[in-house]
Amino acid sequence: MIRDKHLGLRIDEEMHRKLTLLAKIEGRSVNAEVRQLIFRAIREYEKEYGELKESEE
Questions:
Q1: How far apart, in whole angstroms, are the C-alpha atoms of residue 57 and residue 54?
Q2: How confident is the model at residue 55 (pLDDT cuts 50, 70, 90)?
Q3: What is the pTM of this model?
Q4: How much of the chain is helix, strand and coil, in % rounded to 5?
Q5: Residue 52: pLDDT above 60?
Q6: Can you state the angle between helices 30-49 and 13-26, rounded to 10 degrees?
Q7: Residue range 1-24: mean pLDDT, rounded
Q8: Half-sphere exposure of residue 22: CA atoms within 13 angstroms, side-chain side
Q9: Inter-residue contact 19 to 30 (CB < 8 Å)
Q10: Do residues 38 and 46 make contact, with C-beta atoms less than 8 angstroms apart?
């Protein structure tokens, strides 16, 4: 069984406060909001530059 990865993230108090407010506005937990933001960033990158793939070395 593949388990989800854990990501520890250090952010300042103001960013945390704003992230919490954004998550509340969007009806998500802070964790779900961070996942959504990461998903959007990857999707936008791939839209412009193509699919991200591990390099074959």
A1: 9
A2: confident
A3: 0.83
A4: 60, 0, 40
A5: yes
A6: 90
A7: 94
A8: 14
A9: yes
A10: no
